[in-house]
Amino acid sequence: MKLSVVILAAGQGTRMRSQMPKVLHHLAGRPLLEHVIATAQRLRPTAVHVVYGHGGDQVLRALGHCQVQWVEQRERLGTGHAVAQAMPKVPDDEWVLVLYGDVPLISEATLRALVAGAVAGQASLGLLTAMLEQPKGYGRIVRNDQGQVLRIVEEKDATAEQKRICEVNTGVIVAPAAQLRRWLGALNNDNSQGEYYLTDVIAQAVADQVPVHSVYPARETEFLGVNDKQQLAQLERQYQREQADFLMGQGVTLLDPQRFDVRGELYVGKDVVIDIDVIFEGKVTLGDNVSIGPFCVIRDSVIANGAQIKAYSIIEETHVGERDIIGPYARLRPGTLLASDVHIGNFVELKKTVVDQGSKINHLSYVGDATIGKRVNVGAGTITCNYDGANKHQTVIGDDAFIGSDSQLVAPVTVGAGATIGAGSTISRDAPEGQLTLSRMAQKSVVGWKRPTKKSQ
Prior knowledge:
11-stranded parallel sheet, 8 helices
C-alpha cells in the first residue's frame, strides 16, 4: 500500500493576533507544523504535501529544510479546496491521509490504526472521530440506526438536535486517491460559510456505498487544534504533563510535575531527580543517578552517570562526565567536553573547552578554546584571552598545573604540566613545566599619602 500525506497549513489564524502564520507558533520548542510533518514522515509515505497560503514566505523560510512538497493555495476557499490543490501530485493508486498543520500532537499509533482499518476494508474511507462531553465548535458525526456513518454536519449548519450529538469530527481522513479526487471535484459551497468542505466527501462516499471506517484517538490532545494563544498555552501544558507522566513512569523523580518542560527529546537512566522549572531542549540524555537542580536549561547535551547539575546552570552542546559537579550559575557553551570527577563552579563559563579528569574551575572564570589536563586547579577570576579581535586561539594547560586567581592566559599559550601560575599574572608566553611563573609589578607603599576627602559645604 502506497500512502501520500496532505497537510493543510494555509490558514491565517486571525485569533492568534500575530503577524506570524499560525502554524509557525511554537509548541514544546518547535513550530506546530513541524510536529505534524515529523509524525507524517514516521509513517514512511511516498510523499508529504504541505498546502500553504497565508504568510507563505515565512513558512518556507522557517521550514524549507523539511523534506516535503510545498503546494500553494492562492485562494482559501475551504478545506476541500485545499486538499484539491495537492491532488495533481498524487497518483491514483495511492491512499491519501489528510492532516492539519495546527493539530500538532496527533500520534503515529493513531494514524497507523486509522490507515490500517481503512485499507483492511479495501475501498473504504477512514475517519478519525472523538467523543466529547462538550462538542461545541466541532462538526457532528451523523450515524444511522445501525451505527454506520452517514455524514458530517458542521456546527453552523447543524440543527438543534444534531448539536446534541457528542461524537465529533477531527478532520483527519484517509481515502483512496482516485475516489477522493472524484469526490473533491463534486463538492459545492452551498453552506453558511460559502466554502468547499472536505467533510462533505463523507456523504458522497456513503452515497457511493463506500464503507466509512471510524477510529478514536487514544488521547484527547491528539486532535486538539490551536486557534488562539490561550489554546496554545493549554495544549503546551497538557503536552508537558504527558511528558512528565511518561518520565515518572520510567522512574524519574520530578519534584513538581507541573513545573517541567521538554522541548525536544529526553532520554533518562535510573534514579534521575529533576527539580522545578528545568527546561530540556533538543536531544538530551541523562545517565543513572543524575540530579538536576532548579531553574536549569539543558540543550543538546549528555549528562553522564552520577553528575550533579546545580541551580541556574545553562548547558548547551556539552558532554558532562561521570560524577561531575556543575554550578550553581555555571554556563557550559557548545563544544565543551568534560571528563569524570570535574568541578565547574559558580559563575564559570566554558566554551569549546576540554577538561580532563579531576580538574576544577570553581569560581568566576571564563575558559574558552582550551584544553585542560588532569587534576588542574584553575583559581577564581581566571580568563583565557582567546580572541585577538580577528581570530580565536588555543590555551593548553598540562596535568597537575595550578593557575592562581585573577590570572589572564593570553592565547596562544601553553602552561606546562605541574606548572604554577602566580595569582594576578598575565601570561603571554609559554610557562615551563614544574616551575612558578608570574608577572607582577613590584609592590610598594607610599609614605605620607592621604586619601582625598570631600570638601565641606
